[in-house]
Amino acid sequence: MAQAVDAYLALGLRLGRHVDGLVDAYYGPPDIKRRVDAEPPRSPAALAEEARRLLADLDHDTELSPARRRWLRAQVEGLRTTAARLAGEAISYSDEVESCYGVRPRRADESVFADAHRRLDAVLPGSGGLAERYIAWREAQAVPVPSLRPAIDSLASDLQERTARMFGLPEGEQIDFELVTDKPWAGFNYYLGGLKSRVAINTDLPVLSPTLAHLVAHEAYPGHHTEHSRKEVGLVRQRQHDEETIFLVGTPQCLLAEGLADLGLEVVVGERPEPVVAEHLRPLGIPYDAEVVASVAVAGEALGAVRGNVGLLLHEEGASVDDAVAYAERWALLPRVRAEKMVGFMMDETWRAYMTCYVEGLPLCRSFVAGDPARFERLITEQLLPADLVAA
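Structure (tokenized):
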């Protein structure tokens, strides 16, 4: 293994001892993990300096190709930023996001949200105020918990087949789904290595039928599990790019992973997947009107950017948690319990800057792919950075 790669894996594992969840996945050399686990924890300041030395070493590294050095450099810069912030260095939220994820957060104009509200008002069934109707419609689409597993299994089987047909899947890849509670996220892929994932779906709040297929596609096929397993075979096993055996929060790797995962359903099913989704949910007695779901999805898509504004309000503009929750209620048309869940995610030490990966990742990946499956396949098989997608 190249010395810089060894140093990068060790740095990520060391920093992970300070931030719960920062190491999203590790299936790399076990001796490196044993070595890190056996040593006393290093201070964040020492790890920030370790990252700086690695950045300097990468500038003069002759073992790695220029493309690998550039990718690693961006990853290490994200780790340096996280370590420096933990050590007490003053870093603005926008600078933190840009250094970690390779894009600068942008505040969306509220006129965009107001326009989405007008479009939603025109397509939502029922009568009364918009927020009341939107919340009532969404919550009426709750999937009964006993129906979740059969619905997930049915959708996953279909999406697995479509992904294999379009892009290929490694022989022996496998996913185990589970339902969990008391988590800040809606779903999570725990990649275990060996082409296996454990996907957890959080039931703290009712899972809604209009978002279920997207959730399964995002975490499984052709999203996180597909990317991890394809890269394990292509980059790690065939090309010995062992830096891919660790997946670290706070790095550009995450922004592209979330963007491609959010894009995945429309890539393998089509821009309007609702009729296909209905074929899986209706036989299970799960409420799902494909026509209304599609109309609401198109009308309200711009409201996803509310999350980015909430992050800036909290961490750059000094808004209180209550004010941030009220903002999410007003502009994202969320019931208070879901607005509190959103804000709670962005107040979590691990995830505070992570929301940018969803807000900026999807439009970046969608623009790059531009309807070409070959470009999506690049996202799940190559080492790319956000700047590569902009330049392409």
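The mean pLDDT is 96. The CA atoms of residues 367 and 389 lie 8 Å apart.
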